[in-house]
Amino acid sequence: MPSANRLYQGIGNELKLLLKSGIYKIGDRLPPERDIAETFSVSRTVVREALIMLELENLIEVKKGSGVYVINYPEEVLSEKNRKIEEDDFGPFELLQARQLIESNIAAFAASQIVKSDIIELRAILEQERQTLEQNKLYDYTADEMFHITIARATKNSILERILEDLWYKRSSSKMWDQLQSRITDHSYRKKWLYDHEKILQALQLKDAMAARHAMWQHLENVKHTLMTVSDSEDPNFDGYLFDSIPVTIVNQ
């Protein structure tokens, strides 16, 4: 079983061994994600990340609503470019899991530390986010990033702020994240995420730590469900029900 640290890479390498073995020919369709997940005893989120890795290496092609097809065989030695991807990149859902655990607690702490100037700044950022959507700048996530980092800054803890900046840097520099985003054709989800941000801000204004934690947790849960739905390669109506790689739930305290 591959290491839990970069689990998707281990599954991706196992799939590459299958391609090298000649079991699948160029043009063949790989088994459904659900079957691959059962074979390796992992979640579909991990399989999804492994397939993104193979797609970046130009080994497979994902056809929306049809499946995953073999287009090339693996080289005996990985290119320097692809080796760099394997070493440095994180799976999108792995990154979202980390953000969910960290940011929900940051939001709770921010609720106890936040001051009027922070609220004013967050309101201005949400207005910027609204204008971005009204102007149809669907690939501009500047205000989205600013909103999350400003909440971390509101904790008055520079280490927490730095952690959030690093997480967003990992997202913006991730080739796997870009590949996942490239499959999105319906951007209506951005309005739902703006609504989530409004709920988070409302909890912060009330200085309600539990509500802020829950609102942030649910927001990132909604992000995961959205990305699972739009990135599915086999069924356009898949509703993202399998999240056993994200087993943590909010417990009221």
TrEMBL record:
Keywords: DNA-binding, Transcription, Transcription regulation. GO terms for molecular function: DNA binding; DNA-binding transcription factor activity. The keyword Ligase does not apply. InterPro entries: GntR_C, TF_FadR/GntR_C, Tscrpt_reg_HTH_GntR, WH-like_DNA-bd_sf, WH_DNA-bd_sf. SUPFAM superfamilies: GntR ligand-binding domain-like, Winged helix' DNA-binding domain. It comes from Gilliamella apicola. PROSITE patterns: HTH_GNTR. This is GntR family transcriptional regulator. Residues 5-73 form the HTH gntR-type domain. The lineage of its organism: Bacteria, Pseudomonadati, Pseudomonadota, Gammaproteobacteria, Orbales. It comes from the Bacteria.
